[in-house]
Design brief:
Layout lengths: L11 E4 L5 H12 L3 E6 L12 H10 L4 E5 L5 H15 L4 E4 L18 H26 L4 E6 L22 H19 L5 E7 L8 H8 L10 H12 L10 E3 H8 L3
Helix pairs in contact: 1-2, 1-7, 3-4, 4-5, 7-8
Protein backbone atom coordinates (compact mmCIF):
# COMPACT_ATOMS: atom_id res chain seq x y z
CA UNK A 1 0.00 0.00 0.00
CA UNK A 2 1.31 3.47 -0.84
CA UNK A 3 2.49 5.99 1.77
CA UNK A 4 -0.37 8.19 0.61
CA UNK A 5 -2.83 5.57 1.85
CA UNK A 6 -0.72 4.86 4.93
CA UNK A 7 0.62 8.25 6.07
CA UNK A 8 1.69 6.80 9.44
CA UNK A 9 3.94 4.13 7.95
CA UNK A 10 7.19 4.08 9.92
CA UNK A 11 5.56 5.78 12.92
CA UNK A 12 5.09 4.29 16.39
CA UNK A 13 2.18 5.29 18.63
CA UNK A 14 1.64 4.66 22.34
CA UNK A 15 -1.97 4.62 23.54
CA UNK A 16 -3.05 4.30 27.17
CA UNK A 17 -6.49 3.10 28.17
CA UNK A 18 -6.60 1.05 24.97
CA UNK A 19 -8.60 -2.02 25.98
CA UNK A 20 -11.88 -0.50 24.80
CA UNK A 21 -13.59 2.68 23.64
CA UNK A 22 -11.66 5.49 21.99
CA UNK A 23 -8.28 3.98 22.87
CA UNK A 24 -9.04 0.69 21.17
CA UNK A 25 -10.63 2.34 18.12
CA UNK A 26 -7.71 4.75 17.75
CA UNK A 27 -5.19 1.89 17.86
CA UNK A 28 -6.96 0.04 15.07
CA UNK A 29 -7.51 3.24 13.06
CA UNK A 30 -3.86 4.27 13.26
CA UNK A 31 -2.70 0.76 12.39
CA UNK A 32 -4.81 1.01 9.22
CA UNK A 33 -2.91 4.25 8.49
CA UNK A 34 0.38 2.34 8.76
CA UNK A 35 1.48 2.83 12.38
CA UNK A 36 2.89 0.28 14.77
CA UNK A 37 1.12 0.58 18.11
CA UNK A 38 1.92 0.07 21.78
CA UNK A 39 -1.25 -0.27 23.82
CA UNK A 40 -1.77 -0.38 27.58
CA UNK A 41 -4.46 -0.88 30.18
CA UNK A 42 -4.65 -2.00 33.80
CA UNK A 43 -5.04 -5.60 32.61
CA UNK A 44 -3.65 -7.40 29.59
CA UNK A 45 -5.81 -10.53 30.08
CA UNK A 46 -8.88 -11.53 28.09
CA UNK A 47 -12.20 -10.83 29.84
CA UNK A 48 -15.00 -13.27 30.57
CA UNK A 49 -17.76 -10.67 30.97
CA UNK A 50 -18.22 -9.81 27.30
CA UNK A 51 -16.31 -6.52 27.40
CA UNK A 52 -13.25 -6.07 25.15
CA UNK A 53 -9.68 -6.26 26.41
CA UNK A 54 -6.13 -5.52 25.26
CA UNK A 55 -6.21 -8.98 23.66
CA UNK A 56 -8.94 -7.75 21.30
CA UNK A 57 -7.15 -4.47 20.62
CA UNK A 58 -3.91 -6.25 19.74
CA UNK A 59 -5.79 -8.59 17.40
CA UNK A 60 -7.49 -5.62 15.73
CA UNK A 61 -4.19 -3.83 15.16
CA UNK A 62 -2.57 -6.93 13.70
CA UNK A 63 -5.55 -7.49 11.38
CA UNK A 64 -4.72 -4.07 9.91
CA UNK A 65 -1.14 -5.16 9.29
CA UNK A 66 0.42 -3.25 12.15
CA UNK A 67 2.77 -4.56 14.79
CA UNK A 68 1.36 -4.32 18.31
CA UNK A 69 2.86 -4.52 21.78
CA UNK A 70 0.32 -4.87 24.62
CA UNK A 71 1.53 -3.87 28.10
CA UNK A 72 -0.28 -4.00 31.43
CA UNK A 73 0.15 -0.63 33.12
CA UNK A 74 -1.75 1.38 35.74
CA UNK A 75 -1.45 5.09 35.02
CA UNK A 76 -1.56 5.79 38.76
CA UNK A 77 1.72 3.90 39.23
CA UNK A 78 4.89 5.70 38.12
CA UNK A 79 6.88 2.49 37.86
CA UNK A 80 4.27 1.08 35.45
CA UNK A 81 4.46 4.20 33.30
CA UNK A 82 8.25 4.05 33.12
CA UNK A 83 8.11 0.33 32.30
CA UNK A 84 5.61 1.02 29.50
CA UNK A 85 7.81 3.74 28.03
CA UNK A 86 10.91 1.56 28.26
CA UNK A 87 9.14 -1.36 26.57
CA UNK A 88 7.92 0.85 23.72
CA UNK A 89 11.37 2.33 23.08
CA UNK A 90 13.11 -0.99 23.60
CA UNK A 91 10.87 -2.79 21.11
CA UNK A 92 10.52 -0.19 18.38
CA UNK A 93 13.43 2.18 19.02
CA UNK A 94 11.23 5.27 18.78
CA UNK A 95 7.88 6.77 19.72
CA UNK A 96 6.28 9.38 17.46
CA UNK A 97 2.76 9.71 18.86
CA UNK A 98 1.38 9.48 22.40
CA UNK A 99 -2.34 9.34 23.16
CA UNK A 100 -2.98 9.88 26.86
CA UNK A 101 -6.42 8.30 26.86
CA UNK A 102 -6.65 6.35 30.14
CA UNK A 103 -9.12 7.85 32.61
CA UNK A 104 -10.51 7.04 36.03
CA UNK A 105 -13.99 7.69 37.39
CA UNK A 106 -14.19 6.71 41.03
CA UNK A 107 -16.25 5.74 42.95
CA UNK A 108 -19.35 4.62 41.00
CA UNK A 109 -18.76 6.65 37.82
CA UNK A 110 -21.99 8.62 37.66
CA UNK A 111 -22.74 8.81 41.39
CA UNK A 112 -19.83 10.66 42.97
CA UNK A 113 -21.21 12.54 45.97
CA UNK A 114 -18.80 15.07 47.49
CA UNK A 115 -19.67 14.08 51.05
CA UNK A 116 -19.06 10.40 50.35
CA UNK A 117 -15.98 10.58 48.13
CA UNK A 118 -12.83 9.64 50.01
CA UNK A 119 -9.43 11.27 49.73
CA UNK A 120 -8.07 8.05 48.20
CA UNK A 121 -10.75 8.15 45.48
CA UNK A 122 -9.93 11.81 44.79
CA UNK A 123 -6.20 11.11 44.59
CA UNK A 124 -6.65 8.12 42.30
CA UNK A 125 -8.58 10.18 39.73
CA UNK A 126 -6.04 12.99 39.86
CA UNK A 127 -3.20 10.47 39.57
CA UNK A 128 -4.65 8.68 36.53
CA UNK A 129 -6.22 11.64 34.74
CA UNK A 130 -3.57 14.31 35.32
CA UNK A 131 -0.34 13.08 36.89
CA UNK A 132 -0.27 9.94 34.70
CA UNK A 133 -0.26 11.90 31.42
CA UNK A 134 2.42 14.24 32.81
CA UNK A 135 4.58 11.24 33.73
CA UNK A 136 4.01 9.69 30.29
CA UNK A 137 5.20 12.89 28.70
CA UNK A 138 8.25 12.99 31.01
CA UNK A 139 9.06 9.39 30.09
CA UNK A 140 8.67 9.69 26.32
CA UNK A 141 9.21 13.34 25.35
CA UNK A 142 13.02 13.11 25.68
CA UNK A 143 13.07 10.50 22.91
CA UNK A 144 11.06 12.90 20.71
CA UNK A 145 13.26 15.89 21.43
CA UNK A 146 14.41 17.60 18.23
CA UNK A 147 13.18 14.74 16.00
CA UNK A 148 9.57 15.77 16.69
CA UNK A 149 6.48 14.10 18.03
CA UNK A 150 2.77 14.41 18.73
CA UNK A 151 1.18 14.20 22.19
CA UNK A 152 -2.61 14.12 22.42
CA UNK A 153 -4.38 14.40 25.77
CA UNK A 154 -7.97 13.20 25.81
CA UNK A 155 -10.20 15.53 27.80
CA UNK A 156 -13.87 15.73 28.72
CA UNK A 157 -16.15 16.97 31.46
CA UNK A 158 -13.90 19.99 31.88
CA UNK A 159 -16.22 22.77 30.77
CA UNK A 160 -19.23 24.23 32.61
CA UNK A 161 -22.36 22.30 31.67
CA UNK A 162 -20.38 19.39 30.19
CA UNK A 163 -22.10 17.02 30.56
CA UNK A 164 -25.30 19.01 31.19
CA UNK A 165 -25.68 19.34 34.94
CA UNK A 166 -29.32 18.32 35.23
CA UNK A 167 -28.71 16.44 38.46
CA UNK A 168 -27.44 17.17 41.92
CA UNK A 169 -23.99 15.79 42.75
CA UNK A 170 -24.39 12.13 43.51
CA UNK A 171 -27.39 11.90 41.20
CA UNK A 172 -25.96 11.58 37.74
CA UNK A 173 -22.76 13.61 37.64
CA UNK A 174 -19.19 12.29 37.90
CA UNK A 175 -18.29 14.47 40.89
CA UNK A 176 -15.57 17.09 41.23
CA UNK A 177 -12.34 15.12 40.74
CA UNK A 178 -12.94 14.08 37.13
CA UNK A 179 -13.78 17.50 35.61
CA UNK A 180 -11.12 19.19 37.76
CA UNK A 181 -8.46 16.78 36.47
CA UNK A 182 -9.56 17.34 32.87
CA UNK A 183 -9.61 21.13 33.24
CA UNK A 184 -6.09 20.87 34.62
CA UNK A 185 -4.87 18.73 31.71
CA UNK A 186 -6.22 21.36 29.31
CA UNK A 187 -4.13 24.00 31.06
CA UNK A 188 -1.13 21.66 31.04
CA UNK A 189 -1.61 21.20 27.30
CA UNK A 190 -1.62 24.97 26.80
CA UNK A 191 1.56 25.50 28.83
CA UNK A 192 3.52 22.52 27.46
CA UNK A 193 2.36 23.21 23.92
CA UNK A 194 4.27 26.48 24.14
CA UNK A 195 7.26 25.11 26.03
CA UNK A 196 7.86 22.03 23.86
CA UNK A 197 7.36 23.81 20.54
CA UNK A 198 11.05 24.70 20.47
CA UNK A 199 12.04 21.00 20.42
CA UNK A 200 9.49 19.98 17.79
CA UNK A 201 6.89 18.39 20.06
CA UNK A 202 3.24 19.21 19.41
CA UNK A 203 0.78 18.94 22.33
CA UNK A 204 -3.00 19.16 21.98
CA UNK A 205 -6.08 18.20 23.99
CA UNK A 206 -9.02 16.59 22.23
CA UNK A 207 -12.51 16.72 23.67
CA UNK A 208 -14.46 13.86 22.04
CA UNK A 209 -17.95 15.20 22.69
CA UNK A 210 -20.68 12.92 23.98
CA UNK A 211 -19.59 9.49 22.83
CA UNK A 212 -21.06 6.06 23.45
CA UNK A 213 -18.47 3.38 24.14
CA UNK A 214 -18.94 -0.16 25.38
CA UNK A 215 -20.00 0.64 28.95
CA UNK A 216 -21.63 4.02 28.34
CA UNK A 217 -25.29 2.92 28.09
CA UNK A 218 -25.26 1.27 31.52
CA UNK A 219 -23.37 4.12 33.18
CA UNK A 220 -25.55 6.81 31.63
CA UNK A 221 -28.81 5.09 32.47
CA UNK A 222 -27.64 4.53 36.04
CA UNK A 223 -26.88 8.25 36.22
CA UNK A 224 -30.28 9.27 34.90
CA UNK A 225 -29.14 10.51 31.50
CA UNK A 226 -30.89 10.19 28.15
CA UNK A 227 -28.62 7.83 26.20
CA UNK A 228 -29.99 9.15 22.90
CA UNK A 229 -28.07 12.42 23.49
CA UNK A 230 -24.78 10.55 23.09
CA UNK A 231 -23.38 9.72 19.65
CA UNK A 232 -21.07 7.24 17.98
CA UNK A 233 -17.32 7.03 18.29
CA UNK A 234 -16.85 8.02 14.63
CA UNK A 235 -16.32 11.75 15.26
CA UNK A 236 -13.46 11.55 17.77
CA UNK A 237 -11.75 8.85 15.70
CA UNK A 238 -12.01 10.98 12.55
CA UNK A 239 -10.67 13.96 14.53
CA UNK A 240 -7.75 11.87 15.82
CA UNK A 241 -6.91 10.70 12.30
CA UNK A 242 -6.91 14.32 11.15
CA UNK A 243 -4.64 15.39 14.01
CA UNK A 244 -2.01 12.68 13.53
CA UNK A 245 -1.81 13.17 9.76
CA UNK A 246 -1.91 16.99 9.69
CA UNK A 247 0.88 18.65 7.70
CA UNK A 248 1.36 21.44 10.25
CA UNK A 249 0.34 20.28 13.74
CA UNK A 250 2.28 23.13 15.33
CA UNK A 251 -0.38 25.50 14.01
CA UNK A 252 -2.72 24.33 16.78
CA UNK A 253 -0.30 23.03 19.40
CA UNK A 254 -1.30 24.08 22.90
CA UNK A 255 -5.03 24.18 22.10
CA UNK A 256 -8.10 22.21 23.09
CA UNK A 257 -9.93 20.83 20.05
CA UNK A 258 -13.60 19.79 20.16
CA UNK A 259 -14.06 16.73 17.97
CA UNK A 260 -17.64 17.39 16.73
CA UNK A 261 -16.72 20.94 15.73
CA UNK A 262 -13.48 19.81 14.11
CA UNK A 263 -15.30 17.14 12.10
CA UNK A 264 -17.84 19.71 10.90
CA UNK A 265 -15.28 22.39 10.04
CA UNK A 266 -12.99 20.02 8.16
CA UNK A 267 -15.80 17.90 6.63
CA UNK A 268 -14.14 14.76 7.96
CA UNK A 269 -17.20 12.52 7.75
Amino acid sequence: MSDRNQPLRGKVAVITGASSGIGKAAAISWAALGADVVVSARSDAARADGYPSLVDTKAGVEQQGGRCLAIRADMAVEADINRLAAAALGTFGQVDIVLNNAAALEPEPMNANFFEMTSDEWRYQIDVNLTGPWLMMKALAPSMRDRGGLIINMTSGSLPGDPPQKHLPGQGYPGAAYPVSKAAINRMTEVLGKELRSVGIFVVSLHPGRVLVERSPIRLRNGGYDVSQWGSIDKPIAALEWLVTHEDPMSFSGTVQFAPQLVEQQALL
